[in-house]
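Can anyone check this?
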Amino acid sequence: MSNRHYSVKEQDVEKFNSKLLSISNARDEGDWKSIPHTHPFTELFFVSDGKGSFLFDQTTHSIYPGDLVIIPPYTEHTERSLPNQPLEYYVLGIDGISFLASDKTTGQIICNFNDDTSIFNLFRQMLQEIRNSQYGSEAICQRLLEILILKIIRSKHLIPVSINSVRITKECAQIKEYLDVNYANRITLDTLTNLTHMNKYYMVHSFTRYAGLSPIQYLNRRRLEIACHLLESSNHSISDISSLTGFSSQSYFTQTFRKAFGMTPVMYRQTHGETAPS
């Protein structure tokens, strides 16, 4: 008799607060047009058959069977099939976690698992469990999700990032309030990440979706709003207004102002100031 015995050791594996929100399986039958859209949670999009393209904002990527597309919260995206090669795919909606590439430059990731059938099987098992809806199906799907996350991180060397869609909205509002009040101070992206304890990439991306402008763009707009008010209602010099509104120099203030309004601060004061001709 041959017998092999392996002891199971407890490993210090990071605990993820990931929560499975939804599971779906679809095949592009050409009966509806996929349009760019966003979600407040992370999506895992797995291609099981067909070929096509995946659109992130302004970039397009070819996708094939075995490709896993990781879509961060609030990222505009859609998919398109190639003619006569309709995409078939699984989609998981998950809250509490997303991923960064190892260089931390992006949260939009496409990786291929064509040589690892266990990934496809995990998606298929989750769909089967939720369809059958038997005792413990939700708990089993949640455990399968945890296995899937660990396998993705281990095989593709991705960096897990803890997030929460509710927290994102709350902390984006906190960033906006901070910028509204502290516009005169020197503020960097590091200032805002230290304030919210969010990953820098997700902080910028989430705030842009929340406010329609990046944090720095919003800050400059706020500064320009205050500068316009001071130009209209005060006798402060251009240099003083530049300093009072947080611009690093008068020349940068003038450059930014001209780009925004098509005129210099001096010209704006002449046109809109209290002493301007009516």
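Reply from J.R.: I decoded it. Residues 38 and 76 are 5 Å apart (CA to CA).
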